[in-house]
Amino acid sequence: MAETPNTPNDPLVSPWHPTAEAGRRARPWVRVLTVLGVMGLVAVTAIATTGLLLVQRVEASLTRVPVEELDDVEETPEGEPTARHFLVVGSDARDGLSDEDRAELTLGSFDGQRADTIIYVAVSADRETISLVSLPRDLLVRDAEGRPRKIADTFAGGADALVSVVQSNFGLPVNHYASISLGGFIDVVRTVGGVELCLDEPLTDEKSGADFEAGCQQMGPTDALAYVRSRQGARGDFTRIERQQQFIRAVIDELLAARTLADPIRLFQVVDDVASNVETDEDLSTGEMRRLADEARQVVAAGFPMTTVPAYNQSIDGLAFMVAYGPGARAMFESVRNGEPIAERGPSEERAETTVAVWSGGRGQGTGIVTATLAWAGFLPGGAGVGPEAADAGDTTVVYEVPGHADQAAWVAATLGTTVLPLPSGVDAPADANVIVAVGDDATSS
Description:
Helix content is 35%, strand content 20%. The chain has helices at 33-45, 51-61, 99-105, 159-170, 182-191, 221-229, 237-256, 258-261, 264-275, 286-295, 297-302, 326-337, 348-351, 364-376, 406-416; strands at residues 63-65, 84-91, 115-123, 130-134, 140-142, 148-150, 176-180, 195-199, 203-205, 210-212, 215-219, 278-281, 306-308, 311-316, 319-324, 355-359, 380-383, 398-401, 420-422, 435-438.
């Protein structure tokens, strides 16, 4: 039986409560950044004399596995580039870590593998758009028998099982698969000498080991691991994902920095760190990786959007899930399938200051879903009653723009997969509202 979703501040919300034993909680999502680092690195060095040597180095170190469920890459008669879609998994496997690493990083003795992070990466055919979409670990999917499963749990069945549920549940093509272990994350951070991160406020988390003051600071492997593990904050895993996305950008900037590229020893060590900890499908050749990176090098250097599937929490048969918000998720997935940029959702600190008034229109269930989705996305939703009849949404949820807050209205509309309209004539915005959402019948669609 499904229960009504709660907002992140509701004490009944439980998906993010710790369940692992102390010392067995290392689940750093940013291991996958090294895959992107390879792309950025090869992109910059492809025109250099060391480019071929780097490709050979990668080829010698990568591990390849068969993944039968992958979609074939589309081919054009003219041989022009086509879109590529990757599924990147961060595993917390401890293979290759020394006893010293385990002790220093408080990793415990777990020796299996778990899919702690899943990212869908879409590269457009013209190589002008690269989009990264995080799939929360507790995201609800249905397996081949129609049973509800958390997407991270499906990885226990191997890469094919995970690829299959992404294809069948979200209609997303998957051309290639890559997985990277904990060792890759640690080695890369250690090799580049750490990365600089700037915190708006202090972060203290006994569970992850994080203890940072506000301001800019250099983080080595131990601090970096504590930072990306932390779920401190009202939105738990969603807050952690935002920290990890910030960290990914910082590492890629470091990999692309002149001091890294100009140092052959460091450059080759980074490539070894990455490749020796990465597993890919058999069809992802280093030649194709190099071509993709070369074609998309300007986008990689300039940065690319990173976002998370809009979702709300729900209990199903006693288990806590995150459920993709239907209209918002469909709009996002359509964009990545079509090679279009993902609509801007605004900086997290500005979303946290955006108050969204929600007019229910008498649609109680839909209002609960919309309110929870906005809360998990980082906005400040608040009930504003049924709303005036002139602003009733009907079939489709509508975002109404409050004068002076056009950007915030666009962010909310992107999250909910809908459009922005001006307030109807004679209708006033509720006091203190930056954005208004009128809930439509589509809010309950899956």
